[in-house]
Design brief:
Its EC number is 1.2.1.3. Helices cover about 35% and strands about 25% of the residues. By secondary structure, the chain is α/β, with parallel strands linked by helices. The N and C termini lie far apart (about 65 Å). Bound molecules: NADP nicotinamide-adenine-dinucleotide phosphate and magnesium ion (MG).
């Protein structure tokens, strides 16, 4: 293996080569200023290794590499070949599932079975967009006999992509897949908390056969490298996933620089609504999975649970028993469902929300405590006796904490479901088809699940209403955000103008 790397070990893979450099032009390189930063293992708080840090100068270098690749051969590459390279990459992810998942669990702390699920979803996503590369089509529009008009879908150019730490590999695939399928080149910044799996995946980019500069991946801090990307004059688009606060900064940076196109996938405070006629076993499983999957670190987490009053008492009793049974612990244990939160900062934020909830007068039905004294483990937590104005009901906690309250009827459910500034996801559990459709159509959210939760699929668009974002990821819709429309209008005949 070329470039910068260290030997690391995971309980599932034994020793492996962990790249530590910035991935620019298909090579791992040091940052210009020679800076590095530590990567922490959230399971035991130890330092795993250090990786090279990108500063503004490295962002410039990476953007130039992407620009050169775009203006050079990539924009002339056949769609068939773009698709083939993405499918190669998908196949390599599939071949390396064990390594990629183990590195993800090591760095992020997610349960290994979930990490394998993430890699499987990366495979699906990359292969899906590989399939799209030669199906991005324009149109001919007839405006009359004197003109021939055609509409092309062209790549935007160099795309800056800034991703979070909750799904490091999956966000990598969601961003890179559609961008590259549509013929763009990218500079992607990973989250400072979780740079490792993306760097391992960079080895596969080279192996898949991508030309240098098409996909560049840098580790670094949001305030430095992220800000440099979003305000860069030679970046044509920025795609961001993360907090609403930073999303606003990204838009400002775009507005204050070259008005680059912006897509944002931000937070949520999604309602999970259970009607009295729902299959209760099924509803409890999905409500549990809705909030505790990925340790509650999901932008679409079902963090506000509403249960129809007739079944509320029964539901809460069974839900708290179910939540208390979730296996929390070592992410490398096959039976673990919930590992540690990603970082000390996130751990502290969540614990302070729990304190806040208690102070506001909400009741802890289960959980509320740290587990152990090493690693960022938190008990699955349910708050009842909440009011809509409480912070724990309005703000994104991004941890294994939900609130639960009652509703009376359909109108009431729709009203509380929509009582948030967010609009990423929602769910309704019912056995009545009319209720399901009426409520789903009335909730202001980008995704509404019926009798299920968190079941995203790369073929289905995902993104936010209201303050949950701008644009869509996944599905055909993502391609709209990575192409721009050009109209070519040709005057026919030889009559002179005027
Ligand atoms: P964040 O700051 O929004 O981080 C997301 C990404 O943006 C990271 O790569 C981050 O870099 C980068 N970033 C930070 N400041 C930036 C700036 N000024 N310009 C450009 N990029 C910047 O999120 P966080 O601090 O990790 O988490 C805080 C909260 O955000 C969570 O509690 C949760 O509510 C929400 N969140 C949402 C999602 C989601 O999927 N929608 C994901 C993660 C977090 P760094 O490497 O320096 O962090
Ligand atoms: Mg980490």
């Amino acid at each position: 293996m070329s470039g910068l790397s260290v030997k690391l070990k995971t309980p599932h893979t034994g020793e492996y080569d962990q790249p530590t450099g910035l991935f620019i032009n298909n090579e791992f390189v040091k940052g210009v200023d020679g800076k590095t930063f530590e990567v922490i293992n959230p399971t035991d708080e130890s330092v795993i290794t250090s990786v090279h840090e990108a500063t503004e100068k490295d962002v410039d270098i990476a953007v130039s590499a992407a620009r050169k690749a775009f203006e050079g051969n990539w924009r002339k590459e056949t769609p068939e070949n773009r698709g083939k390279l993405l499918v190669n990459l998908a196949n390599l992810f599939e071949k390396n599932v064990d390594l990629l998942a183990a590195v993800e669990s090591l760095d992020n702390g997610k349960a290994i079975t979930m990490a394998k699920g993430d890699v499987g979803a990366c495979v699906g996503c990359l292969r899906y967009y590989g399939g799209w590369a030669d199906k991005i089509e324009g149109k001919v529009v007839d405006t009359g006999p004197d003109t021939f008009n055609y509409i092309r879908k062209e790549p935007i150019g160099v795309c800056g992509q800034i991703i979070p730490w909750n799904f490091p590999l999956l966000m990598w695939a969601w961003k890179i897949g559609p961008a590259v399928a549509a013929g763009n080149c990218v500079v992607l910044k990973t989250a400072e908390q979780t740079p490792l799996s993306a760097l391992v995946a960079c080895n596969l980019i080279k192996e898949a056969g991508f030309p240098p500069g098409v996909i560049n991946v840098i580790s670094g801090f949001g305030k430095i490298a992220g800000a440099a990307l979003s305000s860069h004059m030679d970046v044509d688009k920025v795609a961001f996933t993360g907090s609403t606060v930073v999303g606003r900064q990204i838009m400002k940076a775009a507005a204050g620089s070259n008005l680059k196109k912006v897509t944002l996938e931000l937070g949520g405070k999604s309602p999970n609504i259970v009607f009295a006629d729902a299959d209760i076993d099924n509803a409890i499983s999905w409500v549990n999975f809705g909030i505790y999957f990925n340790h509650g670190q999901c932008c679409c987490a079902g963090s506000r649970v509403y249960v129809q009053e007739e079944i509320y008492d029964k539901f809460i009793q069974r839900f708290k028993e179910r939540a208390a049974q979730n296996a929390v612990g070592d992410p490398f244990h096959e039976k673990t469902f919930q590992g540690p939160q990603v970082s000390q900062l996130q751990f502290d934020r969540i614990m302070s929300y729990i304190e806040e909830g208690k102070k506001a007068g909400a009741t802890i039905e289960t959980g509320g405590n740290r587990i152990g004294d090493k690693g960022y483990f938190i008990e699955p937590t349910i708050f009842s006796n909440v009011t809509e104005d409480m912070k724990i009901v309005q703000e994104e906690i991004f941890g294994p904490v939900c609130s639960i309250s009652k509703f009376k009827n359909k109108e009431d459910a729709i009203k509380v479901g929509n009582s948030t500034t967010y609009g990423l996801a929602a769910a309704v559990h019912t056995s009545n088809l009319n209720t399901a459709i009426e409520v789903a159509n009335s909730l202001r959210a980008g995704t509404v699940w019926v009798n299920t939760y968190n079941t995203l699929h790369w073929q289905l668009p995902f993104g936010g209403f209201k303050e949950s974002g701008i644009g869509r990821e996944l599905g055909e819709a993502a391609l709209d955000n990575y192409t721009q429309t050009k109209t070519v209008s040709i005057r026919l005949g030889d009559a002179l103008f005027g």
